[in-house]
Amino acid sequence: MRRDFNIASAKMYVYSLNRQYKAKINEALVDLHWQISMLAVDPTLITFGPMDVSWLTAGTFNFMMVSSESASMFRALRKVDDIVARLYTAERDGLITREQRREIVAPVNLAYNGFKQVAMKLQNKSIEDLLSESHLA
After folding, report:
1. Of 5, 30, 72, 101, which residue has the fewest beta carbons closer than 10 angstroms?
2. Taking the CB of residue 70, how many other CB atoms lie within 10 A of it?
């Protein structure tokens, strides 16, 4: 995540100098925040109640925010990190399975990948391109 954050932050800063593209980045951030907020109220999470996630050791890193978009991305990643910590704890405690955890967080993963695609101006690849790159076509 740290690598993702650093790369996306730097690219977002440069790409957001174009006001029209900055609007696209902000729209992708809004979508990411919305999807995370939907995960936060998932009935499965609510039934767990308070959970001790202290067994997960967090790393600390120093970094500098280069834009308001970077700060927004950081807030989104912090929120989802807290939720995912609860899901890992629930899985460890036998409240859910690995497959259930993956299903619960899948929409956020899709939203995050979509956000990164916009923030870093990544091009969509067709199935033919992916097969060709993998030497399967």
Report:
1. 30
2. 21
Q: For position 133, what pLDDT does the model report?
A: 62
Q: How confident is the model at residue 129 (pLDDT cuts 50, 70, 90)?
A: low
Residues with Cβ within 8 Å of residue 13, at least 6 apart in sequence: 66, 67, 69, 70
Contacts of 8 (CB under 8 A, 6+ apart): 73, 116, 119, 120
Q: Confidence band (pLDDT; 50, 70, 90) for 44?
A: confident
Spatial contact of 73 and 29, defined as CB atoms under 8 Å apart? yes
Helix boundaries (H) for the chain: 2-15, 19-40, 43-48, 68-92, 98-119, 127-133
* Dist CA 46 CA 8 (whole Å): 31
Pick from 20, 14, 44: nearest CA to 107? 44
Q: Which residue has the higher pLDDT, 125 or 87?
A: 87
